[in-house]
C-alpha cells in the first residue's frame, strides 16, 4: 500500500459539492431554463460583480420557460441592476457603526450577532450585503478569541446570533467548535442561526448538524429565509422536520420583493406552507436602499395594504411582522410606526 493513501482527505460531503456546483454563469442559467436575454425588459448581466450562485436543488425548483418565475427573479442578474440608482448605498444599514469587534455586531443589549461566514450558498440579488467587504466584517479564526471575549465580558448578552453571509457555509467541524465555545460562556442561554441554506441545499442538514443542535445545552432557534411557498419543496420540508425533531424552534424571515411576493395571496399561501412545515413566520422585511436592487422595492403604502389583507386572511400567529431597518434606530421599526 502506498503511504500516500493516508494523506487523502475525506471525501467532500454532498452539500459541499452542491455549493461548488452553484456557481453558474448567466448564460448557463438561461440555457437551463430555456430563456434568452430578450425575455427580460432590461436584458440580463452576463458577468455581474456579485456573481450568480444557484445550487442545483434551487435550480430544479425554477419553472422552465417563465421569465416571471418568482424563484428565478431572486437569483438572476437582470439589467435593472446596472441602471443608475441615485441615492442608493453600499452599506445601507450603516452596520459598520455597530461593530463591537471584527465580526461582531452589537445593536441590542441582550443579543450579539456574529458574522460567522462571508459566503452564502445562494446569492440573492436583493441582498443588502451584496457590497459588504467581508474581509473586514467577518469573524476570522484569529479574531474569534476577541469576539468571544466581547460576549463573555458582558453578562447582558444572553443570545448569540450566527449570521453572515450564511453560517451554514461553515463545515460541521467548525460550527461544532464555535458552538461549544459559545456554550462555554455561562450567561449565554440561546443560540440563533440565520440561514437561507436550508432552502438552497436541504442536504446541508447533515446528521452531524442535527446532533450538534440537539446536544448543545443552549436553546436553539433557527430563522430560515424563504420568500415564496415554492421554495418549501418536499426535500426542504423533510430537512426542516429533522431540525424540529432535534428540538429546534423554527422561524422564517422574508423580504417583501416586487414581482416575487408582493401580494397578500402569495404571502398568505407562503405562511400556510411554512406552518405546515413546522415554521412560524417572523419578519417580513421591507427592502433596504442598497445600490443595484431598486427594482425589488415595494412602497410602504402598498405594504400597508398587504398587511391589512394578511390580518384578514390569516390567524394572528401566522401574520409576519412587517419591518424596516432605519439606520440609527436600535431596533427594527415596525411598519405601523414608520411616518406616513
Ligand atoms: C435583526 C438583528 C438582530 C436580531 O433582532 P431580533 O429583533 O431579535 O430578531 C440582532 N442583531 C442585529 C445587528 C440585527 O440586525
Ligand atoms: S443568503 Fe442572505 S446574506 Fe446571503 S445573499 Fe442571500 S440574502 Fe444575502
Can you tell me about this structure?
With 340 residues, this protein is an alpha/beta fold. It folds into 2 domains: 14-82, no CATH class; 95-337, Aldolase class I (TIM Barrel, Alpha-Beta Barrel). Helix content is 30%, strand content 15%. The chain contains 12 helices and 10 strands. The protein has helices at 14-21, 26-33, 56-61, 72-75, 134-137, 144-152, 172-183, 197-200, 207-215, 234-245, 264-276, 300-313, and strands at 99-101, 104-105, 111-117, 159-164, 190-195, 219-225, 249-255, 280-285, 321-325, 332-334. It has a 10-stranded mixed β-sheet with strand order 1-2-3-4-5-6-7-8-9-10. Strand 1 (99-101) and strand 2 (104-105) form a beta hairpin. Helix 11 (264-276) crosses helix 12 (300-313). Bound molecules: pyridoxal-5'-phosphate (PLP) and iron/sulfur cluster. The site of pyridoxal-5'-phosphate has 8 residues, from strand 3. Pyridoxal-5'-phosphate (PLP) binds at residues 98, 105, 107-108, 111, 113, 161, 332.
Briefly characterize the structure:
By secondary structure, the protein is an alpha/beta fold. It has helices at residues 14-21, 26-33, 56-61, 72-75, 134-137, 144-152, 172-183, 197-200, 207-215, 234-245, 264-276, 300-313; strands at residues 99-101, 104-105, 111-117, 159-164, 190-195, 219-225, 249-255, 280-285, 321-325, 332-334.
Helical proportion, percent range: 25-40%
Strand arrangement within the widest β-sheet reads 1-2-3-4-5-6-7-8-9-10
Q: Helix count, per DSSP?
A: 12
CATH superfamily of the largest domain: Aldolase class I
Q: CATH class of the largest domain, please?
A: Alpha Beta
The mean pLDDT is: 93
Domain count = 2
Instruction: Note the main sheet.
Output: 10 strands, mixed
Tally the beta strands: 10
Integer-rounded radius of gyration: 20 Å
CATH architecture of the largest domain: Alpha-Beta Barrel
Can you tell me the overall shape?
globular
Protein structure class:
alpha/beta
What name is given to the CATH topology of the largest domain? TIM Barrel
What small molecules does the structure contain?
Answer: pyridoxal-5'-phosphate, iron/sulfur cluster
Termini, distance in Å? 75 Å
